[in-house]
Structure formats: C-alpha cells, structure tokens
Amino acid sequence: MKSDEPHPSGLDQRAQDELRGNLRRLVSDTLLGLRQAQGLRTDVQTSGWGFEHFLEGAYQAAMNTASFRAVIDVVRRDETLRRNLLVRDSSGDPLPAGEEELGFGHQRIKPFLRHYLARNRSLKWDEAVFDQVFADLLTYLKHPFVAVEEIAPLLGFSTTLGSIEFSETVQIRRLSDDEKTAATGRVPPIPGLPVGPNLLDMAFSNYAITVDGQIPKNGPVSNQGFKEVDDVLTTLRLYQDAWVGTSSRWFEATTPTFQHIEAFRGSVRSSLWMPFGEYQVDGADVPRLIELYEWVAAMPETGPLRTPIRRLNQSYDRPSDEDRLIDYWIALESLFLDDQGELTYKASIRIARLVGDDLTTRKAIKKQISASYSERSKVVHGKATRWDLREVAAETGQVLRTAIQRWLDPAFSSSIEEIEDEFFN
C-alpha cells in the first residue's frame, strides 16, 4: 500500500506507520519497566482479580513513559484517529487536555495492554502478538458499533439442559469455568473474608442469561443494559415460585475492542439474599417458558401490567413474608381494583374469575384471597398477624403469577369490564 493511500479504516499509511511505531515503543517500554519492577520475572496471571490488579499497574506504568506522549500526539494530529480514539464527554464535545489524556489512557491504552498480555501471557516482547493486536485496532477503527454479549449470572438456578434459547440472540446458557473465574475477578477481595471473590462464585449457579447485541463505539453505555435480560428474569419468576435472581451484569465484547466497558447492575436485580430451595427446569418446561417470554417481551412500555410485574420482581429482594405479601397485594390491587369500593369483595371476585378454571376452584380462590387480604390489612395497620405468614404469602404470590400470565395470554380477557361480563354470563 502506498504511503498516501487510505487504509480501509480511513487511516492513511503514514499515520498508520506512525501510530504503530509509537505504540510498539510504548508497549515495549512498559514491559521493560514491569520486568524490572518484578525482579525480571516474566510470567503473567491472565485471569481473575489478580490480573485486573496487575493490568492496572501496567496501565499506570504506560502512562509514565515518554512514548505515551508520542502516541497521543500522533492521534491528535490525524483526523481519523482523533475522531475514533480520543475520548469525549457525554455530549460528544472534546475534553480538557488533562482529562483527554487520562481518558485516552484508560479507554485505549489499557485495553491494548489487556489484549497483548492476555495473548502473550508473558512480559517478554513478541512482535507477532503485537502485530495481531495492532491489526485488531485497525479493524476497530472501521466500525461505528461494538459487538457485545451481556452476561447476567443466575443465582439459585439449576437445569439439566446445556442452554435454553428464547430467540436468536437471547438464551440461558452454561458458563464455562473461565467465564466464572472472570466473573469473580470483577470483584476485589473482601477484607475479613478469606474466600475473597470466591464468595460470589459460591453464589453463582453454572448458568447465565446472555444477550447478543451492540453498543455505540465511544458512546455512553446504558446502566440498564439490554431489556431482554430483564424480560427473561421476569419470565422465570412468572413461571415458577422458587427463588431465582441475578447479581452483577456486564458486557463482554465479542470482537476485540479498544474501549473500557464497565460492569454495571441492571434494572431487575437481586441481592445475595436467597431463601432455601432451588429453581429447577428441564426440557418439558421449555415450550411454556418460550411462550411466556414472547408475551413479556411484546408487552408495551406502559400499561396495566407494569406495576404488577415491577412489584413481583421487587418481592424477590424482600427477606420477610410481610413485605412480600404487601408487594403482592399492591400488584393485585393495581390489576383488579379501579376504585375504592368494597375492596375485599371486588378483588376476590375478579381474581377468582380470571384465575380459576371452574366453579369449585373459583370458590376456593375467593376464600383464599379474602383471608390473604385480611392478613395484608393487619400488616399494613400494624395489628397482630399469624405467627407465620409464609404459607399465605406463597399462596398469594402464586395467584398473582397466574393472574399476570392470563392477563398476558391473548386467549384470556384482559380488562375489568370483560372479566365482570364473563362472570355475569
């Protein structure tokens, strides 16, 4: 390629050669400094919290080299490099010089070092590894988006299946040992706890909700993540009353990328509090899970089910039966009560009509719901309740799940007027 011909990334050969030469010196100088700091040891641990700690040290060492200044000067002089590699604020405007350098180091140099060290597994210089990473950087310059997989490890989940596919891009799949190690490595050791990050490893199941997608290159990353993760977790909670949850969620780039992607917590999350019992599914459960997921995913952003589903999800963070019972009743009232009339009677009649399949079942549900509402009122008004509300809360929660499922089902009536018309008919 001639020196004045543009690279497919839009980068001309002269700028490419300058960038390569200065990056080569930067990585080489950084490796030398790290070898000297380690007493000439060359081995590198490339997973877990130890690697993250080591990488931070490598990044700080790189920032203190003269070659770092040379690299950022090359980037500032070339329009293509400036547009793709300099970090900007949330409005897309340039940062002050000092912040720009810190952002460039954190978002570009640190990921470059990560790729090099992860591939080389040594502090020795390897020209071929450097060329591979530099070629990936040129590829990164070409695309406006970064391909990612969002990973949300499940807590309390068990299955004999290798994966459950909800769509082409959404699934629950088994985590590899390397992925679990990387996941626990995102959390530093906890002072006073000898298990350190393994505390999370103990809480993880072997499975995670994963979603394939893309995020804007150099753009802001939503702290909510992909909606599909929330939809799968809601589907699991609607299908079965056993406890299931997620903790941290994060993006992993599925192609080599040169920007730092932070871990984050999504909008439907759970603490590490977990009651006894395990959420279990097998092959026979899959068709119904997929059907439920499709209904949940198609649900409009606003509508009568938003509050009930939000309260159902919030109930999974409640350690007490009283709090869960209140969540369930806020959800049921938002679905079945449209005014302040005779609450117990109206709620029990409407819920029984929608949830029950025959007269005998409806009578039993009406009686059960009336008793549950009575306990709910005692809790709200601070009066003495049963010593153990677990059974009442569990029964009410199951009624709520069934009600939401039928409200989602196109085959069932989904308005108060239609429910009452069917009752009188």
Characteristic terms for this protein:
six-stranded antiparallel beta sheet; alpha+beta; two-stranded parallel ribbon; 3 domains; single chain
Q: Please give the largest β-sheet.
A: 6 strands, antiparallel
Radius of gyration, whole Å: 28 Å
Distance between the termini: 81 Å
SS-derived structural category: alpha+beta
Give the overall form.
elongated
Report helical residue fraction. Answer: 40-55%
Strand content: 5-15%
Number of spatially distinct domains: 3
Q: How many strand elements?
A: 8
SSE ordering: HHHHHHEEEEHHEHEEEHHHHHHH
Ranges with pLDDT <50 over ≥5 residues? 1-8, 187-203, 266-272
The overall average pLDDT, rounded, is 79
Task: Please explain how this structure is put together.
The protein has 425 residues and is of the alpha+beta class. The protein folds into 3 domains: 13-142, no CATH class; 145-283, no CATH class; 301-424, no CATH class. Helices cover 54% and strands 10% of the residues. Helix 5 (97-120) crosses helix 6. It is elongated and about 80 Å long.
List the helices and strands and how they pair.
Elements: H1 13-37, H2 48-63, H3 66-77, H4 79-85, H5 97-120, H6 127-142, E1 145-155, E2 157-159, E3 163-165, E4 170-174, H7 177-184, H8 198-203, E5 204-216, H9 227-239, E6 245-246, E7 250-253, E8 279-281, H10 286-298, H11 306-315, H12 321-336, H13 343-355, H14 359-380, H15 390-408, H16 416-424
Parallel strand pairs: 2-8
Antiparallel strand pairs: 1-5, 1-6, 1-7, 3-4, 4-5
